[in-house]
Amino acid sequence: MKFFTNEAWEKVSDENKEILDDYSMELEVQGKAPKTIYQYQADIKGFLCWNAEHNKDKYLLDLKRKDFVKFQLGQTRAGTSNARINRFQSSLRNMLQYCVMEEDLYPDYQINPMAMIKGLEKKSVRDIYFLTDKQVSYLIYKFLVTGKTQVALWVSMSYDTGARRNEILQISKDEILDSNVTNEVVGKRSKKFKLIYSNRTKAIAKQWLEERGDDEVDSLWVVGNGKDRHAVRYSTFYDWAIMCARLLHEQDGEDYKFGPHTFRHTALERFSDGTHYYARHELGRSDGMDINMLKNIAHHSDISTTQGYLQDKSTKAMEEAFGVKLSE
Protein backbone atom coordinates (compact mmCIF):
# COMPACT_ATOMS: atom_id res chain seq x y z
CA MET A 1 0.00 0.00 0.00
CA LYS A 2 1.50 3.31 -1.10
CA PHE A 3 1.05 6.29 1.20
CA PHE A 4 3.47 8.85 -0.20
CA THR A 5 2.44 10.91 -3.21
CA ASN A 6 3.58 14.36 -4.25
CA GLU A 7 0.00 15.59 -4.04
CA ALA A 8 -0.39 14.35 -0.47
CA TRP A 9 3.03 15.68 0.52
CA GLU A 10 2.00 19.19 -0.49
CA LYS A 11 -0.80 18.97 2.06
CA VAL A 12 1.57 18.20 4.92
CA SER A 13 2.09 21.22 7.16
CA ASP A 14 5.46 22.93 7.44
CA GLU A 15 5.61 22.27 11.19
CA ASN A 16 5.26 18.52 10.63
CA LYS A 17 7.91 18.61 7.93
CA GLU A 18 10.23 20.55 10.26
CA ILE A 19 10.09 17.75 12.85
CA LEU A 20 11.22 15.28 10.20
CA ASP A 21 13.99 17.66 9.08
CA ASP A 22 15.31 18.02 12.63
CA TYR A 23 15.18 14.27 13.22
CA SER A 24 17.02 13.68 9.94
CA MET A 25 19.78 15.98 11.18
CA GLU A 26 19.97 13.98 14.41
CA LEU A 27 20.33 10.73 12.46
CA GLU A 28 23.18 12.26 10.48
CA VAL A 29 24.90 13.34 13.70
CA GLN A 30 24.56 9.78 14.98
CA GLY A 31 26.47 8.61 11.92
CA LYS A 32 23.63 6.66 10.37
CA ALA A 33 24.26 5.53 6.81
CA PRO A 34 22.60 7.63 4.08
CA LYS A 35 20.57 4.57 3.05
CA THR A 36 19.29 4.14 6.62
CA ILE A 37 18.37 7.82 6.89
CA TYR A 38 16.55 7.61 3.57
CA GLN A 39 14.53 4.63 4.81
CA TYR A 40 13.53 6.44 8.00
CA GLN A 41 12.51 9.47 5.96
CA ALA A 42 10.50 7.36 3.50
CA ASP A 43 8.56 5.65 6.30
CA ILE A 44 7.82 8.87 8.14
CA LYS A 45 6.90 10.74 4.96
CA GLY A 46 4.45 7.95 4.18
CA PHE A 47 2.82 8.36 7.58
CA LEU A 48 2.69 12.16 7.26
CA CYS A 49 0.97 11.82 3.88
CA TRP A 50 -1.56 9.42 5.40
CA ASN A 51 -2.07 11.88 8.27
CA ALA A 52 -2.67 14.71 5.79
CA GLU A 53 -5.13 12.70 3.69
CA HIS A 54 -7.02 10.77 6.38
CA ASN A 55 -6.42 12.58 9.67
CA LYS A 56 -6.87 16.28 8.81
CA ASP A 57 -3.08 16.84 8.88
CA LYS A 58 -2.99 16.97 12.67
CA TYR A 59 0.19 18.27 14.28
CA LEU A 60 2.44 15.27 14.79
CA LEU A 61 3.06 15.93 18.47
CA ASP A 62 -0.67 16.28 19.16
CA LEU A 63 -1.47 12.79 17.88
CA LYS A 64 -2.72 10.22 20.37
CA ARG A 65 -2.32 6.48 20.60
CA LYS A 66 -5.60 5.94 18.76
CA ASP A 67 -4.30 7.88 15.74
CA PHE A 68 -1.37 5.52 15.33
CA VAL A 69 -3.57 2.48 15.93
CA LYS A 70 -5.89 3.76 13.22
CA PHE A 71 -2.93 3.97 10.84
CA GLN A 72 -1.84 0.45 11.76
CA LEU A 73 -5.33 -0.97 11.23
CA GLY A 74 -5.52 0.68 7.83
CA GLN A 75 -2.26 -1.01 6.85
CA THR A 76 -3.45 -4.38 8.14
CA ARG A 77 -6.75 -4.20 6.28
CA ALA A 78 -4.91 -3.24 3.09
CA GLY A 79 -2.82 -6.40 3.34
CA THR A 80 0.46 -4.74 4.29
CA SER A 81 2.95 -7.28 5.59
CA ASN A 82 3.73 -7.44 9.30
CA ALA A 83 7.37 -6.71 8.54
CA ARG A 84 6.52 -3.45 6.82
CA ILE A 85 4.05 -2.44 9.53
CA ASN A 86 6.73 -3.05 12.15
CA ARG A 87 9.18 -0.97 10.15
CA PHE A 88 6.73 1.94 9.98
CA GLN A 89 6.13 1.65 13.71
CA SER A 90 9.83 1.50 14.49
CA SER A 91 10.58 4.60 12.40
CA LEU A 92 7.75 6.57 13.98
CA ARG A 93 8.49 5.39 17.49
CA ASN A 94 12.17 6.33 17.24
CA MET A 95 11.40 9.78 15.89
CA LEU A 96 8.82 10.45 18.59
CA GLN A 97 11.20 9.19 21.25
CA TYR A 98 13.78 11.62 19.88
CA CYS A 99 11.19 14.40 20.36
CA VAL A 100 10.68 13.30 23.96
CA MET A 101 14.43 13.41 24.60
CA GLU A 102 15.02 16.65 22.70
CA GLU A 103 13.96 18.97 25.51
CA ASP A 104 15.11 22.11 23.75
CA LEU A 105 12.92 21.85 20.69
CA TYR A 106 9.87 20.12 22.17
CA PRO A 107 9.72 21.07 25.87
CA ASP A 108 6.11 20.02 26.37
CA TYR A 109 6.37 16.65 24.63
CA GLN A 110 6.99 14.10 27.36
CA ILE A 111 5.17 10.89 26.41
CA ASN A 112 5.73 8.81 23.30
CA PRO A 113 2.30 7.38 22.35
CA MET A 114 3.91 4.82 20.05
CA ALA A 115 5.59 3.23 23.06
CA MET A 116 2.16 2.38 24.42
CA ILE A 117 1.09 0.35 21.40
CA LYS A 118 1.24 -3.31 22.35
CA GLY A 119 3.85 -5.38 20.63
CA LEU A 120 6.38 -2.60 19.97
CA GLU A 121 9.90 -3.32 21.14
CA LYS A 122 11.39 -0.59 23.27
CA LYS A 123 14.93 0.41 22.52
CA SER A 124 17.01 3.52 22.87
CA VAL A 125 16.72 6.03 20.05
CA ARG A 126 20.33 7.12 20.47
CA ASP A 127 23.52 6.07 22.19
CA ILE A 128 24.46 8.16 25.19
CA TYR A 129 28.13 9.08 25.47
CA PHE A 130 29.73 10.11 28.75
CA LEU A 131 33.01 11.91 28.24
CA THR A 132 35.69 12.05 30.91
CA ASP A 133 36.76 15.32 32.47
CA LYS A 134 40.12 14.80 30.80
CA GLN A 135 38.48 14.52 27.38
CA VAL A 136 36.51 17.72 27.91
CA SER A 137 39.66 19.58 29.00
CA TYR A 138 41.44 18.21 25.94
CA LEU A 139 38.72 19.57 23.64
CA ILE A 140 38.90 22.99 25.27
CA TYR A 141 42.69 23.04 24.93
CA LYS A 142 42.66 21.94 21.28
CA PHE A 143 40.11 24.55 20.27
CA LEU A 144 42.03 27.29 22.08
CA VAL A 145 45.39 26.46 20.48
CA THR A 146 43.83 26.24 17.02
CA GLY A 147 42.16 29.64 17.30
CA LYS A 148 38.59 28.34 17.76
CA THR A 149 38.06 30.25 21.00
CA GLN A 150 34.28 30.49 20.63
CA VAL A 151 33.93 26.71 20.28
CA ALA A 152 36.20 26.22 23.30
CA LEU A 153 33.90 28.57 25.23
CA TRP A 154 30.82 26.63 24.12
CA VAL A 155 32.32 23.33 25.30
CA SER A 156 33.39 24.82 28.63
CA MET A 157 30.09 26.62 29.20
CA SER A 158 28.02 23.56 28.28
CA TYR A 159 30.10 21.35 30.56
CA ASP A 160 30.00 23.74 33.53
CA THR A 161 26.31 24.52 33.40
CA GLY A 162 24.91 21.17 32.23
CA ALA A 163 22.36 23.31 30.39
CA ARG A 164 20.13 22.35 27.49
CA ARG A 165 21.10 23.48 24.03
CA ASN A 166 18.36 26.09 23.84
CA GLU A 167 19.39 27.53 27.21
CA ILE A 168 23.01 27.86 26.08
CA LEU A 169 21.78 29.57 22.92
CA GLN A 170 20.07 32.27 25.02
CA ILE A 171 23.24 33.42 26.77
CA SER A 172 23.97 37.10 26.14
CA LYS A 173 27.43 38.66 25.92
CA ASP A 174 26.34 41.50 28.23
CA GLU A 175 27.60 41.25 31.81
CA ILE A 176 29.10 37.81 31.09
CA LEU A 177 32.36 38.93 32.75
CA ASP A 178 30.78 40.70 35.74
CA SER A 179 30.18 37.50 37.73
CA ASN A 180 30.00 33.74 37.30
CA VAL A 181 26.35 33.66 36.27
CA THR A 182 24.66 34.32 32.95
CA ASN A 183 21.65 36.38 32.14
CA GLU A 184 18.29 34.79 32.90
CA VAL A 185 17.33 32.10 30.41
CA VAL A 186 14.02 30.33 29.82
CA GLY A 187 14.11 26.57 30.19
CA LYS A 188 11.65 23.73 29.98
CA ARG A 189 8.08 24.47 31.05
CA SER A 190 8.93 28.20 30.94
CA LYS A 191 11.15 28.07 34.02
CA LYS A 192 13.45 31.07 34.31
CA PHE A 193 16.90 30.84 35.87
CA LYS A 194 20.54 31.84 35.53
CA LEU A 195 23.38 29.49 34.66
CA ILE A 196 26.50 29.19 36.81
CA TYR A 197 29.95 28.71 35.31
CA SER A 198 33.59 28.41 36.38
CA ASN A 199 36.45 30.89 36.35
CA ARG A 200 37.99 28.83 33.55
CA THR A 201 34.94 29.47 31.40
CA LYS A 202 34.95 33.13 32.42
CA ALA A 203 38.57 33.49 31.29
CA ILE A 204 37.78 31.90 27.93
CA ALA A 205 34.77 34.22 27.57
CA LYS A 206 37.04 37.21 28.17
CA GLN A 207 39.45 36.01 25.49
CA TRP A 208 36.59 35.37 23.05
CA LEU A 209 35.05 38.81 23.53
CA GLU A 210 38.44 40.49 23.07
CA GLU A 211 38.98 38.58 19.82
CA ARG A 212 35.43 39.27 18.69
CA GLY A 213 35.56 43.05 19.20
CA ASP A 214 32.59 45.39 19.19
CA ASP A 215 29.37 44.55 17.34
CA GLU A 216 25.64 45.04 17.71
CA VAL A 217 24.77 41.36 18.27
CA ASP A 218 23.56 40.66 21.80
CA SER A 219 24.13 36.90 21.70
CA LEU A 220 27.36 35.40 23.05
CA TRP A 221 27.50 33.17 19.98
CA VAL A 222 27.99 34.68 16.52
CA VAL A 223 29.10 33.90 12.99
CA GLY A 224 30.19 36.19 10.17
CA ASN A 225 32.04 39.47 10.13
CA GLY A 226 31.17 43.13 9.86
CA LYS A 227 27.64 43.83 8.72
CA ASP A 228 27.11 40.13 8.02
CA ARG A 229 27.72 39.12 11.64
CA HIS A 230 24.69 37.53 13.32
CA ALA A 231 23.76 35.13 16.10
CA VAL A 232 24.38 31.46 15.38
CA ARG A 233 21.56 29.17 14.39
CA TYR A 234 20.24 26.45 16.62
CA SER A 235 21.87 23.83 14.39
CA THR A 236 25.34 25.37 14.74
CA PHE A 237 25.86 23.54 18.03
CA TYR A 238 25.40 20.27 16.14
CA ASP A 239 28.28 21.26 13.86
CA TRP A 240 30.46 22.07 16.86
CA ALA A 241 29.61 18.73 18.48
CA ILE A 242 30.73 16.96 15.29
CA MET A 243 34.02 18.89 15.50
CA CYS A 244 34.42 17.60 19.05
CA ALA A 245 33.78 14.01 17.98
CA ARG A 246 36.40 14.30 15.23
CA LEU A 247 39.02 15.66 17.61
CA LEU A 248 38.49 12.81 20.04
CA HIS A 249 38.66 10.32 17.18
CA GLU A 250 41.99 11.78 16.09
CA GLN A 251 43.25 11.43 19.65
CA ASP A 252 42.33 7.81 20.42
CA GLY A 253 40.95 6.31 17.20
CA GLU A 254 37.51 5.61 18.70
CA ASP A 255 34.33 6.52 16.82
CA TYR A 256 32.29 9.15 18.63
CA LYS A 257 28.86 10.07 17.35
CA PHE A 258 27.16 12.49 19.69
CA GLY A 259 25.34 15.79 19.75
CA PRO A 260 25.29 18.87 22.03
CA HIS A 261 23.22 16.99 24.62
CA THR A 262 26.29 14.84 25.38
CA PHE A 263 27.73 17.67 27.44
CA ARG A 264 24.57 17.82 29.57
CA HIS A 265 24.81 14.10 30.36
CA THR A 266 28.56 14.38 30.92
CA ALA A 267 28.28 17.40 33.23
CA LEU A 268 25.79 15.67 35.53
CA GLU A 269 27.79 12.44 35.59
CA ARG A 270 31.06 14.20 36.40
CA PHE A 271 29.46 16.34 39.12
CA SER A 272 28.05 13.07 40.46
CA ASP A 273 31.35 11.17 40.62
CA GLY A 274 33.41 14.17 41.77
CA THR A 275 35.69 14.40 38.73
CA HIS A 276 34.27 17.61 37.23
CA TYR A 277 36.93 20.31 36.77
CA TYR A 278 34.72 23.02 38.29
CA ALA A 279 33.95 20.94 41.38
CA ARG A 280 37.53 19.77 41.99
CA HIS A 281 39.61 22.84 41.10
CA GLU A 282 37.33 25.75 41.98
CA LEU A 283 34.78 24.47 44.48
CA GLY A 284 37.16 22.15 46.32
CA ARG A 285 34.75 19.22 46.03
CA SER A 286 35.86 15.81 44.87
CA ASP A 287 33.32 13.83 46.90
CA GLY A 288 30.59 14.05 44.27
CA MET A 289 27.27 15.88 44.47
CA ASP A 290 24.10 14.13 45.56
CA ILE A 291 21.10 13.56 43.34
CA ASN A 292 19.18 16.53 44.77
CA MET A 293 21.94 18.96 43.81
CA LEU A 294 22.20 17.37 40.37
CA LYS A 295 18.44 17.85 39.97
CA ASN A 296 18.91 21.55 40.74
CA ILE A 297 21.80 21.88 38.28
CA ALA A 298 19.73 20.23 35.53
CA HIS A 299 16.59 22.18 36.46
CA HIS A 300 14.57 18.97 36.40
CA SER A 301 11.17 18.75 38.04
CA ASP A 302 11.62 15.15 39.15
CA ILE A 303 14.63 13.25 40.51
CA SER A 304 13.77 10.22 38.37
CA THR A 305 14.51 12.34 35.28
CA THR A 306 17.90 13.27 36.69
CA GLN A 307 18.68 9.63 37.47
CA GLY A 308 17.98 8.79 33.83
CA TYR A 309 20.79 11.15 32.81
CA LEU A 310 23.44 9.28 34.77
CA GLN A 311 25.36 6.14 33.94
CA ASP A 312 23.89 2.85 35.09
CA LYS A 313 26.29 1.66 37.78
CA SER A 314 24.38 -1.50 38.73
CA THR A 315 26.68 -3.82 36.75
CA LYS A 316 29.80 -2.28 38.27
CA ALA A 317 28.32 -2.62 41.76
CA MET A 318 27.58 -6.32 41.17
CA GLU A 319 31.11 -6.89 39.87
CA GLU A 320 32.62 -5.28 42.94
CA ALA A 321 30.31 -7.11 45.35
CA PHE A 322 30.81 -10.59 43.88
CA GLY A 323 34.29 -10.26 42.39
CA VAL A 324 33.21 -11.24 38.89
CA LYS A 325 33.32 -9.68 35.43
CA LEU A 326 29.86 -9.09 33.90
CA SER A 327 30.60 -6.51 31.22
CA GLU A 328 32.63 -6.93 28.05
Word description of this protein:
The structure is a single chain. The protein has 15 helices and 4 strands. The protein is mainly α and 328 residues long. A two-stranded antiparallel ribbon has the order 1-2. It has a two-stranded antiparallel sheet with strand order 3-4. Helix 7 packs across helix 11 (261-273). Residues 119-125 have low confidence and may be disordered.
> What multimeric state do the chains show?
single chain
- Tell me the total number of β-strands: 4
Major beta-sheet overview: 2 strands, antiparallel
What is the 3D shape? globular
**Class from secondary-structure proportions:** mainly alpha
Order of helices and strands: HHHHHHHHEEHEEHHHHHH
Uncertain parts: 119-125
What is the overall number of helices?
Answer: 15
From the alpha carbons, calculate the radius of gyration and give it in angstroms: 22 Å
Helix content percent band: 40-55%
Overall pLDDT: 89
Major sheet: arrangement of strands: 1-2
**Approximate strand percentage:** under 5%
Whole-Å distance between the termini? 44 Å
Can you give me a brief rundown of this structure?
The chain has 328 residues and is mainly alpha-helical. It has helices spanning 6-11, 14-29, 34-54, 65-77, 82-101, 133-145, 149-161, 165-169, 199-212, 236-252, 261-273, 277-282, 291-298, 303-307, 314-322; strands at 181-186, 192-196, 222-223, 230-231.
Key phrases:
mainly alpha, two-stranded antiparallel ribbon, single chain, 328 residues
